[in-house]
């Protein structure tokens, strides 16, 4: 058995990993010890354990970027590593939850990961209404791409955006992420599913996995969600990753303004003048309150700083 292997984690199933080495060979491995956490996208060093006949991942190399979420206790959980692009997928069905979309974009902004909004299922009724509801994001500078995994419409644009880059598909359950992977990576053996009767979708992906795309990029697929809470440790404490809040906040009266109820807040003033989308501001307020709740849920030993986040 090979004594040492350097490679990238291309699939993570709990404590089981698949690691691809420089030659393209795939090796099964397990993280060594309870303290080592490796996720899809990580670069790792593995060593053979002859006594147990297995390969152990013993070191995780430095990460360029990471997508984190908060668990119910406010602790950060790493989902994916070394991303260049986060593709947040929405669709006419199931109905888009713009607050989940906001939170993914917030996490990407705070992690310095480029973000792209992908409207899938362009073949379904309701496309025009969905595009109209997302107009605010275009005005904020977010790219919005429309496609259909079923008809292949617009998929060439997705391939172009991923060329030479590592991207990840995220979003609500049932929006067609696995179908997009199957379209963009012809060799991917991906299960796809139908929407359930509540139109909320069901999970067809149970673990994060990386695929090579036909256009020379790499694409990670992750399980769908019904909610997403960005890691409070990794959010920009001043604006929570909201571009319009960051743009307006320098004019606030107080440098540490939280943009909630402080006097002479330029962010609230922008909302009152119609210069900021009120739904986005409400989304910011919800995330600020959630940040406070998750901070309170932490134990003193896990809090990064002694004070409440800004």
How does this structure look, described?
With 310 residues, the protein is of the alpha/beta class. Strands 1-2-3-5-4 form a 5-stranded mixed β-barrel. A two-stranded antiparallel sheet has the order 6-7. It is 24% helix and 25% strand. It has helices spanning 98-110, 127-133, 135-139, 155-162, 177-184, 243-248, 266-273, 278-297, and strands spanning 4-13, 16-21, 26-31, 43-49, 54-60, 66-70, 76-81, 85-90, 114-119, 143-146, 166-171, 208-212, 218-221.
Summarize the structure.
This protein is an alpha/beta fold and 310 residues long.
Oligomeric form: single chain
- Tally of DSSP β-strands: 13
The mean pLDDT is: 89
Tell me the structural class.
Answer: alpha/beta
Question: Could you describe the largest sheet, including whether it forms a barrel?
Answer: 5 strands, mixed, barrel
Number of continuous helical runs? 8
* Outline: globular
Residue windows where pLDDT falls under 50 for at least 5 positions:
190-204
Strand order of the largest sheet: 1-2-3-5-4
Provide the succession of SSEs.
EEEEEEEEHEHHEHEHEEHHH
Could you tell me the strand content as a percent range?
Answer: 25-35%
Distance between the termini: 52 Å
Radius of gyration, in Å, reads: 21 Å
Q: Helicity level, as a percent range?
A: 10-25%
